[in-house]
Amino acid sequence: MSRFVPYLAEEAIERDAASLIGEYERARGLTIEPPIPVEDIVEKYLKLRIEFDDMHSRHNVPRPPNGQPDILGAIYGDGSIFIDESLDPEENPSREGRYRFTLAHEGGGHWRLHQHLIVQDTAQTSFLDAASEPKFICRSSEAKERVEWQADFYASCLLMPRKMVFAAWDEFFPDRKQRVLQPETPVAHSFCQSAFNRDPLSARKRDPSAVARIG
Q: What is the 3-state secondary structure (H, E, C) of 79-135?
C-alpha cells in the first residue's frame, strides 16, 4: 500500500524522542541515566507487546544465503512488535545493540511518528486482518525510504539523547579538542579518526543505525 509520509525536520524528531523520555521519567517518578531503558519505555509505558519469532518464516521470505536475517522487525496494527529471534539478547548477548535499536525503531520511531498511518491502515482492513498484518516490515537490505529513515533517526535520538551524549563527552574530554582514537579492533591502517571529533552526534545524523553498531 502506498502511503504518503510527510517530511519531518530532524529537530522535530529529536524533540519528540526527548519528550518520550521526559514522559517516561514523570510517569515512573525517576530520572533516566544511560543506558536508556528502551525495553521498559516500549513495553511498560507505551504498552506495546514485544515478541520474538523467525521473521523470515513468519512472512514466507527466504533468508539470505549467509544465514543472517534481512527482516529484523515489524510492527502490527494491534501494537505488537515482532523482532527476529536472532536478536534475542538472552540467547545472543552480542546482538543486544541491534536488538535495542530495532526496538527503538519499531516502538519509538514508527509508533510515535507514524501511528496515524498504522491506524489508517488498520481502519482500511477487516478486524481480523488488523492484528495479523504488519504495518511496517523493516529490512536491512532495502534502501531507506523516508518512513524508515525517520524511524531510524528517532531510534538514534532515543538511545543517544543529545544532553547525555554531550555530558559523557565532556566528562571524558572536558577540553573538547579533536582527537585520534585507537580502534578496538585492529584495522589495515594504524589509527582511525573518531566519528565524533567535531560533534559527538555527527555519526548519529549521517547514519542513525550506527548507534546499534556503537552499542
A: CEEEEEHHHCCCCCHHHHHHHHHHHHHHHHHHHHHCHHHHHHHHHCCCHHHHHHCEE
- CA-CA distance, 102 to 108, in Å (whole number)? 9
Coil/strand/helix, residue 25: helix
Helix (H, G, I), strand (E, B) or coil at 181: strand
**Residue in 86, 109, 81, 106 with CA at minimum distance from that of residue 96:** 86
Q: Could you give phi then psi for residue 133, rounded to 5 degrees?
A: -95, 130
Q: State the pLDDT confidence band at 192, using cuts at 50, 70 and 90.
A: very low
Which of 24, 16, 17, 58 is CA-nearest to residue 43? 24
Rounded to 5°, the CA angle 197-97-36 comes to: 80
- pTM, 2 dp: 0.79
- pLDDT tier, 140 (very low <50, low <70, confident <90, very high otherwise): confident
Q: What is the 8-class DSSP label of residue 198?
A: S
Closest CA to 146 of 117, 123, 104, 107: 117
